[in-house]
Amino acid sequence: MTKPSDKKNIKRRYEVTIEIEPDTISKGADELEKKLEAMGYKVIGKARYISELISEQQRKAMHLWFDQVGEALNEKHIDMRAFLRKDIEMPWSGWAIKEFIFRPLMEQRYGKKSINDLFKTGEIDLLYDVISKEIIERTKGEVDVPPWPCREWRQLQEEEKLSTK
């Protein structure tokens, strides 16, 4: 059990989100960082404009799509060697789609290492289009690339499940 006098030695990490008007972001963020450091806080990372970055829902949709593409390729018995020229047979997975196809293309096109740094519109759409086209071309149309997950698509899937019961 921690004594009250020991509580001051416990380190805690907090994440704080602060909204700053776009026209004052660079000046405001720098001043805020200096004030926090003067108060003894350590600032990790730099400020970035988050309202245009990918949302949590979009990130989840992206990972769902990775899984669906992997399943579609596996259903047609097209293993990773068809894309990666490796000597070992490896089935596809959402992780493999992300790490061996999506991430290298994202880094090449946008110089970004994390999907969390993608913009909501434009960047994801282009990556989806390029990957879908490449899969269709390399499999000679044998694989049906799933549509991008969205609310409407999920509703259709749920309706199909209900209608088959």
List the topology elements:
Blueprint: H1 25-38, H2 56-75, H3 81-84, H4 94-110, H5 123-138, H6 151-163
Helix pairs in contact: 2-4
Report on this model:
The chain is mainly alpha-helical and 165 residues long. It has 2 domains: 12-51, no CATH class; 56-163, no CATH class. Helices cover 51% and strands 0% of the residues. It contains 6 helices and no strands. The chain has helices at 25-38, 56-75, 81-84, 94-110, 123-138, 151-163. Helix 2 (56-75) packs across helix 4 (94-110).
Quick gist of this model?
With 165 residues, this protein is mainly alpha-helical. It is built from six helices and no strands. Helix 2 crosses helix 4.
Bin the strand percentage. Answer: under 5%
Estimate the helix proportion, in percent. Answer: 40-55%
Kindly give the count of domains: 2
Outline type: elongated
- What sequence of helices (H) and strands (E) makes up the elements? HHHHHH
Mean pLDDT figure: 77
How many H/I helices? 6
Q: What is the structural class?
A: mainly alpha
Question: Oligomer, anyone?
Answer: single chain
Q: What's the gyration radius in Å?
A: 22 Å
Largest sheet: none
**Intertermini distance:** 55 Å
Task: Give the tags.
165 residues; mainly alpha
